[in-house]
Amino acid sequence: MELTKKQVSITKGVAILFMLLLHLFCTKDYQGLFTPLIMIKGVPLVYYLALFGDCCVAIYCFCSGYGLMFTYKNNPDEYNKKNAKRILKLYINFWIIILLFVVLLGYLTGNSATYPGNIKPFLIFRQYMSVIMSLNCF
Questions:
Q1: Is residue 39 helix, strand or coil?
Q2: pLDDT, tens digit, 9 for 90 and up, residues 63-85
C-alpha cells in the first residue's frame, strides 16, 4: 500500500497537532494556564492525551523518510544532487540564523555576558564547523 502526497501531508499535519498538544498541555501544573473540564484522580484528562503527542517526531520523520524514498526510487541519479543542494541551503540558513540571533542580537542588546553576543566564540565555532565539514563526516 502506497501513501499519496495528500495522505502524507495529512499525516504531517496530525504530527504537528500532536506537537502542539504535547507542548501546550503536557503539564500537571495547569493553574493559570487553562481550566480542565475532565479530571482523573486530580490530573487533567488533556494531560494524558498530550502524552500521545510524544510520537510527533517519529511520525514526522517517517513521513519525511517516506517522501525521500520515493524521490530516490523515481530518480536515483538526481537524488544526490538534490540532497547536496538541500544540505547547502541548510548550512547557509544555519549561519544566517547564528549570525542574526546569537551574535548580532547579543551585541545589540548589550547582554553579551548572558546572551552569547561575543564575536570571538562565534568565529571559533565557525572554524570548528568548517573543519568538521571539510572532513566529510556527513
A1: strand
A2: 988 988 888 888 888 888 888 89
